[in-house]
Amino acid sequence: MRSEQQILNVIITTAREDERVRLVVMNGSRANPNAPRDFFQDFDVVYFVPDVTPFIKNLEWVERFGEIMIMEMPEDMDDPPPAKDGSFGYLMQFKDGTRIDLGISPLTSLDELLKDSLTVVLLDKDGRTGSCPPSSESDYYPEPPTAKAFTDCCTEFWWLCTYVVKGLWRREILYARFMMDNLCRGELMKILKWYIGMRTGFTVNPGKLGKYYQRYLEPGLWEMLMKTFADSGYDHTWEALFAMGDLFRIVAVQLADHFGFGYLQEYDYNVNAHLRHVQALPQDAAEMY
Questions:
Q1: What are the φ/ψ torsions at residue 122 (nearest 5 degrees)?
Q2: Where does residue 56 fall: left (phi above 0), alpha (psi -120 to 50 degrees), or beta otherwise?
Q3: SS3 123
Q4: What is the DSSP string of 183-217?
């Protein structure tokens, strides 16, 4: 596997030798001074050019970066739909384990992309960036919730739980797990991010998709979070759902106390009573209540 410096040399040398490339920046985890270093880290790089057109679907041009295992060109795909923002990207996984996510962007989009606080300028042929501030995580700190955002999160979480139990009682495990693992968990992760922000003064980056949550949650809460993940069994899915509710409640009550918000205790009580009722409901029941 090539070293970080070898990859950076390829990226910078390619740009330096191509007159069309005027500026190169790197963002993502390799631009983050606080991110753990390992061999899975991508090289998230953007080449800024006057005209993107010659770089679109130019497979011969990208061969210089290494022997490709698999590659995606998001702007050439229908699903997911392309951004259509004037840029073109090559997401390249190489056979030596290296990955480069290379974006080709018009110079006119430079100011917008430089707003990302996790940005390192690798090459600036024309001095367009001036004195770019040091890379930092400041754009990735969570923001304190408003009272409405907090109430909306709590309402949505308990509301979504009713869909999970509908799927469990009907023995529709895929539906139930989608509602729990994707939608309910989304609200749980949101409130955990606020909780981590509360505990740290909103001055740390919890990480994409919660990858640094274990650093900042107390061991007991982390253990509770792990119990929200279940195998495909119905009984274990019920247990995971109740664990999710318990964790949500503990964190939400502390947030409400800290910020002076009202917690929707009645919704919590009513929905949990409903969950327990449906769990005990016979499969041949003709009525819910």
A1: -95, -30
A2: beta
A3: strand
A4: IIHHHHHHHHHHHHHHHHTT-S---GGGTTHHHHS
62-66: Cβ within 8 A, 24+ apart: 62/90, 62/92, 62/102, 64/10, 64/14, 65/10, 65/11, 65/14, 65/92, 65/94, 65/100, 65/102, 66/2, 66/10, 66/92, 66/94, 66/95, 66/96, 66/98, 66/100
Domains of the chain: 4-138 (3.30.460.10), 141-280 (1.20.120.330)
Q: Are the CB atoms for 253 and 194 separated by under 8 Å?
A: no
Which of 92, 52, 57 is closest to 72 using CA atoms? Answer: 92
* pLDDT tens by residue, the chain, 289 residues: 999 999 999 999 999 999 999 999 999 999 998 899 999 999 999 999 999 999 999 999 999 999 999 999 999 999 989 999 999 999 999 999 999 999 999 999 998 888 899 999 999 999 999 877 889 999 999 999 999 999 999 999 999 999 999 999 999 999 999 999 999 999 999 999 999 999 999 999 999 999 999 999 999 999 999 999 999 999 999 999 999 999 999 999 999 999 999 999 999 999 999 999 999 999 999 999 9
The pTM score is: 0.90
Burial zone of 58 (CB within 10 Å; 0-12 exposed, 13-18 middle, 19+ buried): middle
Q: In terms of Cα–Cα distance, which of 171, 179, 150 is closest to 264?
A: 150
Q: Edge-to-edge, what's the strand order for the sheet holding 99-106?
A: 68-72, 88-94, 99-106, 43-49, 23-27, 119-124
